[in-house]
Amino acid sequence: MDLSTYETYEFDNVSAFNMSTGYKERSYKYHWHSYGEIILVGPGKTNIFRVGRETYNLVEGDFVLAWPMEMHSIVDADRQESLVIQFSNAFMNSLFDLRRIMHLYRNLHVVCVNSHPELAAELKEIAMQMKKTFFSEKEDREIRCCMLLMEFMLKLSEYRNELIPDMNEEHAGIYNSDVMHRMVMVTEYIKNNLTADDLSQGTMAEMAGISRDYFSRIFKNVTGMNYSKWLNLIRLDRASELLSKEKITLTEVAMLSGFQSIPSFNRVFREEKGMSPGEYRALFEKEGFYEMKN
To answer: How much is the average pLDDT of 150-178?
Structure first.
């Protein structure tokens, strides 16, 4: 595998919001970062993007959504007039409703103007307000941009029923705030306790105070995927972080991420990331993020 085609970047820890545009180069290497990224696609006949293992051929006015920790790249697209919006994962996790929306749309990576003209138009209007505010150099621009980012996410939430089919999921119902809080409580517990002895769906349903079948149905609607798939992705997020920052063995990474065996860790990692854990770690060694122990 040619590791020179991958890059890694860290977010400015001081900022919750960032924006950029005007790049002459038409491509950008396959990479990931701990912050999320929204791209408003610019003009031109060719606009090809990749998120995860999917490639999208888009048109002007479409949106690309790369959630925190997702591998993505710009294969060949107009970057001169496209707009790149970046947001801190810590900011998104600071509010219940933002966490809920990220859970729901984790599998949503594009919003196409041809499929969702009204939504795309409304999202573009918000993005243009962000651009005007961000480049105004006003002292309170970050606050105002974050308010517009929340409006952007709420707009996605308003079109939930229209967007769910794009993720190949069943038409989702709307649950009351008590149920949603229970689900977020469980997901936050899992994220903070990946090495717990029992993270089975039945145990998590009991923690939420609802039946296993109801939990399973709600979980899929809230997160956009079944429980086992989501749990593996959360474990991979943790493993990715450890591989990028910690000088520990691959076995330790697997165990600290909650995987029960090295074969299952390697299999799931390759299925989702398109490379082995060792190859992923080599990206950071190449960039000099840390020196491995001999």
So the answer is: 75
pLDDT tens figures, 172-196 = 445 556 777 787 788 888 988 999 9
Q: Name the DSSP class of 134.
A: H
SS3 272: helix
What is the DSSP code (8-state) at residue 166?
A: G
The residue with tokens 């490639």 is 55
Domains 3-167 and 177-287 share a fold: no
CA distance 142 to 2: 38
Question: What pLDDT is recorded for position 101?
Answer: 85
Per-domain residue ranges of the chain? 3-167, 177-287
127 close to 153: Cβ distance less than 8 angstroms: no
Tell me, what amino acid is at 275?
M
Q: Which residue has the higher pLDDT, 75 or 174?
A: 75
The confidence score (pLDDT) of residue 33 equals 80
> Measuring CA to CA, how many Å separate 191 from each of 46, 162, 274?
39, 29, 23
CATH 2.40.10.120 fits 3-167, yes or no: no
